[in-house]
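Why does this matter for the project? Reviewers at the last site visit asked to see concrete outputs rather than summary tables. In response, this paragraph embeds two records directly. Each consists of the residue sequence and, immediately after it, the corresponding structure tokens. Nothing has been edited or filtered.
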Amino acid sequence: MIPAGWSTLDNRTLVATALGYTGVAVAAGVPVAIGISGGAGLGVALAWVLPFAAALIVLGTAADYVRLLKTRYRTGEERVELHTGLLFTQRRSLARERIRTVDLTANPLLRIVGLVKVKIGTGERAESGQSTLTLDAVTREEGDRLRRELLRRAEQGEAPTGEGSLAVLDPGWIRYAPLSFVAPALGIAAGGAVMQVSEWFGLQKGVIAWVGDLFRDLPLVAMIVVLAAILLVVGVIGSLGLWVEMWWNFHLEREPGGTLRVRRGLLTTRSISLEERRLRGVDVVEPLGTRLAGAARVDAIATGIAQQQENEKTDSKTLLPAAPKDIADRVAADVLREPVAPTAAVRLAGHPVAARGRRLRWAVGSALLLVAILAVLGWLLTDVLLHIAWIAAVVTLPVAVLLALDAYRSLGHGITGEYLVARSGTVRRSTVALQRGGVIGWRVKQSVFQRRAGLVTVMATTAAGAGGYSVLDAGQDQGLLFAEDAVPGLLSEFLERDSR
């Protein structure tokens, strides 16, 4: 019997649970059945596999049924409460005034039955999930009702103006998907998966022999290049599919009451909401590949966006996927309600030449270390690694120098209106525009090597985003004066000014 005022999760969750366990049973049972049938026949294999599969589905669904019976929630005037548990009952609640995010997610199984998972959070970096409540799962209508109700803060007549669509998906943006490091990473993962699966079935030596026979007429270096190209093509295809899954139907809009909402996803749909009053700035991110193509993405810097848990997506702060730079600048300006994006409105001050030397030394040293490791392993193990070592030297040393010079050119900082701006990075160039009023302190760091070079790193600490944003390797006086000018008085008592 459910007490008055309390609600329960939707029973259709059991259908999604049963389908999910069926998929697990099939994925695990088919390889096992194939392995058993090779020696004992198909009938014996099914006799072993089917009972275990049925037990998995029935027991998993039954456990979820018990969870549904013992879970209830309610939204009151001051708190949101969730009670769950059979042997050990958990009673948790969040004060409504502390709620910062209400995100809706629906994987393909939940979409089939018309349900969504609702995650209500305060944005605090608390352990054991104490800053969030998760309702898994409710109807789409109930999820939308909870999102609107829990994020409705502005009093009538005080809601910010300018509601409506800020950005929608342009399918042409998919051209930027293969330009990130995701493509080669997916290609390498695919190659590793082939080798792992072949090992499970005892076919790994056969696969290696087949590849050797296929390329037996090619020199070793040519074979390595061809295999790398094949893996890269596989990675490109994978990155395109991943982009479509993540960003299809993307829509960024501003809702009444001052809430930014991002909707996206093909198979798994996501709806992420962010109160504007929690926004402290934006981060225009330009990974190397997309930057060369003239594109950038826009991330939010806001309180209430906690560090991501290990099992969560890391893109919940992204307001715009990689898009042409002029569109990214326009969206950044619209999000901040500025005529021009602060990240593009100021000419950034450069950093001393000593900062260039530091980047050159780090880049060249890292490349030489890689080459040395490969050479030593090649001398000890196989000539193949010696070939890879000299190829790495020819390729990585010039690339390291170019990246170091680009990293130096990317360094910069400035102040425009209510924002301080800091830029750094080359493989991932980041231009941060942070509200000066959102800075709660400064952290000044100077290593022994920086001290000898007359450089300093100053970090603006904030309760939003990553918690701190740095101006890297600025001149000592340059960095300290920037911090004082950006937030007057915050650092002044620690500064000693030259009386001359």
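We now turn to the second protein, recorded in exactly the same manner.
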Amino acid sequence: MPGTQAEPGRTAGGSVSATASRPNDILADYDQGLYYDELFGLRDAPVDHTALIRQRLSSLDFEDLRRRLQDAERELYNLGITFLVYSNKDAVDRILPFDVIPRVISAKEWAHLEAGINQRVTALNLFLKDVYHDQKILKDGVIPAELVLGNANYRPQMIGLDVPFDTYIHIMGVDLVRDRHGTFRVLEDNGRVPSGVSYVVENRHMMQRVFPDLMQDIGIRPVDNYGHKLLEAMYEIAPHQNDPQVALLSPGTYNSAYFEHIFLAREMGVPLVEGRDLVVDNDRVYMRTTDGLARVDSIYRRIGDDFLDPKAFNPDSLLGVPGIMEAYRKGNIALANAIGTGVADDKAVYCYVPRMIKYYLDQEAIIPNVDTRICREGDALQYTLDHLEELVIKPVGEAGGYGITIGPRATKAELDDCRAKLLADPSNYISQPVVDLSVCPTVTPDGIEPRHVDLRPFAITGKSTWVLPGGLSRVAMKKGTLIVNSSQGGGSKDTWVLEGTAP
């Protein structure tokens, strides 16, 4: 629970106390504004669980902090921990900007988030089983049938196909935001090909090398076992349980997350393959090796449905494996994530997840959604048009922060363009209120300043669900911006989940 006692150097209201501040306190002039701060809490109610970390940070020299940051960035570059930005014609790869001040989550908070993520993954897997089998939720009118059956990511090829443990989403990233009152909310679900977990693990390694003095005796839950947990799930779903062969299927070196593909294959100790390395013979999948063909039983795919099998989906795809869909239908290969999961992380379907949770589990959502309006509905469209300058408008099929209009920060020309697009194709958009994302102290050229952050925890599901403690904290490196996406200039922080039991 938040405490009420102000720490040295700051008043209870969050501003600096001139008499109490120390000359070497790098946090003395820090002002979180009106936002919830991940290190300090609310302005009038500081949190207790970060007190020791704040004390250690305050005693650091700012120039030393900047030197450590530069060392970290140099090491990231040397290790090849990069991110491909398609929109930047002047660069191919760049490092993901990294900030050395961590984002810290208490054991109690994490227990709440872990339960909410587990609940959400469970409901979404039940939903996917239902819509590819009996479609009860559609027949009962809980979700509009046309929203699902007419969705571009709905795959009729999956109708009637049973998957191990009824698990469709094996790897899921849930994007969470915290509002100015400190309440976590789900912003969107990522159940197709979620990325970013490699930065979670590498950020921790980086902090252990650069900041061992800050981490000493804090009690932080480890993240190093993600590869082991993923491999374990891939073994569980394999059709052949006698020494199954797992592989990671990548679209290749020009994919924006190719570093992550290499990282995860290494962490699991499995081959990294491309479509050309695999062949289907007699509805079984084999990998080309120097010793001939070797059977593959389970594939963690980082290729979207459209490009996976030119015989079943996009006939022009050169990235996939011809015939793999038929091998999948006959149960000769396991795929994670399952084909057709995209219908569950559509931004319009997202609005109905709390209803899914109630329908399938008879529970209220532990982590609420951000209030969302589906513009395909007349009332929602009219409200959005009437309040355009107050809302965030998102295309349902885009990712990476592309296509978003943030009303309060948009120009008149941008609002007019958004209005025209809404009227032309309302079913392609949702609208949400602007969430005042929480902030975290961040190293900038001008000192320690607040920057907005979100959180993407990762869940792995085989027989059961395991949630990686923490997740990817993305940070909007540009002052004032709310867009944290890597493709839009955002960076990342290490996320510390503190050990201990939640009361």
